[in-house]
């Protein structure tokens, strides 16, 4: 027996019909009948009696209905308490992906709300709204609502679909966000600025690199998940910060 069985029992009890309960819950009647038999077997008692109009609860069924309501109420309380413990997260797309998918520090289940902003807007957003965690390349030292929890580094490399992409004079793609750390490092490394192509979206940059239409400095994890080639023999480390609300 599980929590879903309790919902099935409650629907049968309140509606008084296996068929109508099945329709309301979106199940086949045979599934409802099977789950009811499982409950009655585990409890070693009859919960309902069949009539021409449907089903009526037995004395035990009435007792079990009261217990079901109590269990559902307690479950709702626990669910609310769990939701209240979940946190809010602010960050750029690439850093949120790194934090949740590759850092091993937290998972999506820890958060009730995740807000993605361009790096240039994160400082202002953190000033306007309080978040439990902010992951950013920027400093929030002037915002007294947060303290620096830890500093980490994201491994990145120039990625392309083919290893000779630089020789083919493909454009070097950078995010148009002026304070993007990947953009800054690319402009620092690249002597020929005429090859720079600004793109407004990380997703668009990924797509163009995957299609062989450009080169871009991206997290090393992208090379593995998207079957891309690293163009440098050594990876680059870009430092980012995780701030926590006080």
What are the SSEs and their pairings?
Blueprint: H1 3-15, H2 18-25, H3 29-43, E1 48-51, E2 54-57, H4 59-85, E3 87-91, H5 93-101, E4 111-116, H6 119-128, E5 133-136, E6 146-160, E7 172-175, H7 181-189, E8 196-199, H8 202-210, E9 215-219, H9 220-225, E10 229-230, E11 236-245
Parallel strand pairs: 3-4, 3-5, 7-8, 7-9
Antiparallel strand pairs: 1-2, 5-11, 6-9, 6-10, 6-11
Helix pairs in contact: 1-2, 1-4, 2-3
Organism: Bombilactobacillus apium
InterPro entries: LysR_HTH_N, WH-like_DNA-bd_sf, WH_DNA-bd_sf
Keywords: Transcription, Transcription regulation
CATH superfamily of the largest domain: Winged helix-like DNA-binding domain superfamily/Winged helix DNA-binding domain
Portion of residues in helices?
40-55%
| Strand residue content | 25-35%
- End-to-end C-alpha gap: 43 Å
Mean pLDDT across all amino acids: 88
Low-confidence stretches: none
CATH second-level architecture of the largest domain: Orthogonal Bundle
CATH class of the largest domain: Mainly Alpha
Tally of structural domains: 3
Alpha-beta content class: alpha/beta
Radius of gyration: 28 Å
Number of helices: 9
- In the CATH hierarchy, the third-tier topology of the largest domain is known as Arc Repressor Mutant, subunit A
Largest sheet: 9 strands, mixed
> Which term fits the overall shape?
elongated
Listing every helix as H and every strand as E from the N terminus to the C terminus, the arrangement reads HHHEEHEHEHEEEHEHEHEE
Number of strands: 11
